[in-house]
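Because showing beats explaining, we think one record worth quoting, sequence and backbone structure tokens together, and here it is:
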Amino acid sequence: MVMALDNILAVILGGGRGSRLFPLTKMRSKPAVPMAGKYRLIDIPISNCINSGIYRIAVLTQFNSVSLHRHITRTYQFDTFHAGWVQIWAAEQTMSHAEWYQGTADAVRKQLNEIRTTAAEYTLILAGDHLYRMDYAAMAKFHFDLDADITVAVQPVPRDEASRLGLLKRGENFRITRFAEKPKDPAVLEEMVSLKDKKRPFLGSMGIYLFRTDVLFKMLEGTAYTDFGGEIIPKAIEEYKVVGYDFDDYWADIGTIRSFYDTNLALASPNPPFDFYDPKRPIYSHPRYLPGTIIHDSKLEDVLLSEGCCIEDAELRNCVVGVRAQIRAGVKLSNTILMGADYYDDKSCAPSPESGQIPIGIGEGSVIDGAIIDKNARIGRGVTIKPFPRDSKDVDGNNWFVRDGVVVIPKSATIPPGTVISPEIAEQMD
């Protein structure tokens, strides 16, 4: 088994534009988006690889990639006596490919020469925007035992979610016999039932694929397929042995502002659905060596709090607070993700000045409910942000946005003192 794992190359797809996560992706790629106060989304699949004993990891990048590159190079460095590596394979122009990645499959196709140089017998394809903990070694053993060409990680899906996902029909010996992309037809849905569980009768693709590398090459070389889920897997079912590996644990696709918001806030609950505290299978990230958080005369209820923060005479309820966050006197935060900062102002814990530049953090007396405040944002004194209904239409304000019913303050944005952001204000902008 050890030798088999040594023959696996993990390829993480990290080059997408991430338009559904805008404006969090305004200045960074999707896998570089901060998560749970101190991590980034890319940390999840890389940590899963390391914890599974897979030490050759390539991250494909393209869009707004500088911060992602910086994070990976600072974080994932094996010592000189270790054969493992985490490499960045950036999109590039070559004699045979002059255009950008055109999709997940096309991204891997354009890196086939790099994959070939690794001599890996198996290639594990992973997404860079999911939250889950999986033992890929167990999936690999399943693949080897069945002598499969391709293994797809699958998860039970309830009927009310089936039309949003790619569904797989599985027959005897775990073999996948059919694929349907987000089926809406009730007749098709009935044909895709794979499980006896009445509550979760369908199998949804998790976008995790283990290929025999020679099969991967046959599927990509000389073809025009651009997508794994919609094109490669349906075609492979006809020609190769494709099996479905069961994963029935927590898994979240962080593809939209709403899913990002809900998933993060759930981590602040007393019994969060995802456990970052597992000592045997930790989630790794960049060590920052920050001081402890200072909390003075404040009330915190259901708060995930990171290190290096300063909270002065404030009230926080159901919040995620990132590293170096500065929350000043009289602030009330509810149902809010405050990502913190990349650096400190000269006087980080001092009160906001009456005039001059607004410091990083939340200014005195601000009341904020239902928001995502990105890194290095400067919120002036007395700012009010009220929650929007979940079905609110998108709004583009002055340094603020509403997406999926969530107010988002972009990275490094400044909100002037006394600003009010509310559904009523949004209606007046029409």
User: Anything to note?
Assistant: The longest helix spans residues 228-239. DSSP finds eleven helices and 28 strands in the chain. The domain at 2-266 is CATH 3.90.550.10 (Spore Coat Polysaccharide Biosynthesis Protein SpsA; Chain A).
